[in-house]
């Protein structure tokens, strides 16, 4: 038996060694910048080159412009250019074809061509165990970039240089960090207030003071303190998220428009609900409009509410119309801010147990779809990044020129992200995505935990709001670490890899130190029964002044509940 085991180990070892020895290694490649001009028209495009084959100057001043000729229908493998085109002293654009780079370069050189641009969809992996006697400059360019380049005109001149990839501060990350922390802070603070108000009213009802609230309102209050969620439902939800992400990956060009439609509806509602409490404090336009029936819904609103609704619809409509313009990121971020704040306010998780389960499952979900899926995809890109950026963007994710990327869904991208254009000068920025992105999930998921913590602070009369402030600070620090990881590793990062431990650990440590971990873990029900919320003398001491009378109650309910409360 021992001999058989030893023989098996020897076989496995030999197979491993043979695979290791026979694994091919390839030439390293670098990114360069192609500058093009045609009179007053200019453009910058990303190219890829192999330093072992070709070298380019590192400064613009060292480069000289050369004319180009578009022969992209020719692969450069045949002996003569099509139609005997004169390619002397020109950069020649060819398709990939079935011959080697050396053969293409020799053909171009034979006809006195100046250089070679190969149009390809992906990086060409060249073995590093053979020589490449190439005497003219060679570079790869994506199809989208080539089309834009050729579209500049017939008398285009280009030069290629390879700027040194130094440390360039991208201030867009500072903007995204500020937006994310502000969104979580406001949404979680509001969520905690609503949770506490509903808990307090529910407690008053249970203590024999039902006359202060109508029967209809009692049902709403009992239902909305927090979501009725079980661990099984959390698991099913995460599985549904996995399925939806895979559907978007394989059917992006169809489902992207469904997501855009849902985003428009949700963000319109969010803008209205976020601004309505402010608008209702404005004394102008408080007159009630005549009742009207829309389907099965009876609407009876004030003039100022109607104006707000029209404004919310107009804002979302402007984004739909101008979503492909350069300034559209401002509109998208405004809608995304309102959407995220409203979601954190409305989706109130019942306990630390549910929060922990959700965050831990999404922790592994994020890691798998960012770091593991590249091992299975054809182009080596992660499923998460492909979906977030629109399904790919040319050669090695970067030769989209100034167009900002392409996808199987045209030039559409999912709107479920905060995006800010790169701020700061970096010549190689044409090789990356035009925007820094942060998905809504990296705001909403930690935001729900922070919102739960604020509600707990209020319920336990914690005036210093230790849980809320600690988790909010921890969220900001976790986001900073995410950006540091992005800078050091130069690849997309699963933000929840950092945010989940950064936000969960402080809650558990505080709970242990304050001997409140059991209350946190079990959530709303035990908090109401076992904390100072049951002490009527301290009901008002736990929260800032914010009247909850019959007139303002509908402001805290969802749109569905407001309709139910209207006469």
Automatic annotation (TrEMBL):
Q: Which residues form a coiled coil?
A: none
Q: Which InterPro entries match?
A: PA_domain, Peptidase_A22B_SPP, Preselin/SPP
Question: GO molecular function: any one?
Answer: aspartic endopeptidase activity, intramembrane cleaving
Q: Which UniProt keywords apply?
A: Hydrolase, Membrane, Transmembrane, Transmembrane helix
| Domain of life from the UniProt record | Eukaryota
Biological process annotations from GO: membrane protein proteolysis
Q: Name where it's found.
A: Endomembrane system
Major site of localization recorded for this protein: membrane
Q: Which PANTHER family does this entry report, sorted A to Z?
A: INTRAMEMBRANE PROTEASE (IMPAS) FAMILY, SIGNAL PEPTIDE PEPTIDASE
What family does this chain come from, according to its entry?
Belongs to the peptidase A22B family.
- Name-wise, this protein is Putative Minor histocompatibility antigen H13
- Organism of this sequence: Daphnia magna
